[in-house]
Predict the 3D structure of the following.
Amino acid sequence: MTKPTCYSTKAYSAASPSSPLGAAVIERRNPTPTDVQIKILYCGVCHSDLHFARNEWHFTQYPAVPGHEIVGKVTAVGPDVKKFKVGDTVGVGCLVDSCRTCPSCLEGLEQFCDSGMVGTYGGTEKYLGTPTLGGYSQSIVVTEDFVLRMPANLDLAAAAPLLCAGITTYSPLRRAKVGPGHKVGIVGLGGLGHMGVKFAKAFGAHVVLFTTSAGKIADGKRLGADEVVVSTDPAQMAGQAGTFDFILDAVSATHDINAYLNLLKRDGNLVLVGAPEKPVPVAAFALLMRRRSLSGSLIGGLPETQEMLDFCGKHNITSDIEMIRMDEINAAYERMLKSDVKYRFVIDMATLA
Ligand code: NAP
Ligand code: ZN
Ligand code: ZN
């Protein structure tokens, strides 16, 4: 593989787990024949960005550039690119490449690639061998097979979080065939959780939101929850025992998942999408009783991500966002840690001038 030449672009990066993010200049490869170069207009702020910037998952290499909810305009395409042209509005999510030949890749489940998917950040750049750098930057170059078409009718900034928060909640709800007649719980009203509420409602389920923030009750209902349970109130929790078909747990910090396992019916399933730094203790009896199961889910592959975007276009689903300037990112991280996000920060990349 010949090493492509590079160009410089502005970005925001972290130099160490404890340093705030600040302005930087990074190198990207110039487009190879199958690459698409994208001017980034908006980038959503996922709690994974914070886990990654602060090395909470113990694999971050510095300087680190987070950001994997990317939308923008195509500025250049390689000569072999078939699906995109200059000026197209496109998206890039959590992965930018994979082996493309293993059974998972061939099934369109590239996030489970046997050789390891190439993450949009924290992966290894296939051509340069350097760590991949994410979307808190002015431009990115991605092979066309990992670029998504954005529905023309959606507000672009509000659609950016679909690229991670959207697909991460859509995929497990779809896999569980959530629909009319199902009672579905969503735990945590943050970026992922608020999309979980919207999708579970759109699929026709009876949706119960669990929140630790009593101040989010009205928003939970506005976003589509039929009921909102304040999970710190034992009486409210006890009232829901043994009644759920499916629960999606989107909490970013350590919490008691046994309290939620006990809310499942016989054969009910709790899927974890939240990725706290520390292990989560599981009480055996919470699973044994009623033959319950506990599983996980990781983002989604490229075909399902495009399916989700098209579904959102058809049903006019986007995130509820708060737009920030690039230099407000450190304050946004602090607010995210206090569960004070309504319900996704999105960076206006024009402010990184
Ligand atoms: P977020 O916007 O910060 O939302 C997390 C929510 O969890 C908060 O708003 C809060 O909701 C609740 N919460 C926070 N601390 C809590 C605590 N100590 N106890 C109970 N509840 C608490 O985060 P996000 O971007 O949605 O991401 C959520 C998690 O999913 C993160 O760990 C992230 O890394 C992970 N993630 C996983 C995938 C995947 O593929 N599996 C993809 C993306 C993100 P309330 O105020 O309503 O209680
Ligand atoms: Zn994410
Ligand atoms: Zn593969």
The mean pLDDT is 97. The chain has eleven helices and 17 strands. Residues 302-315 form the longest helix (14 residues).
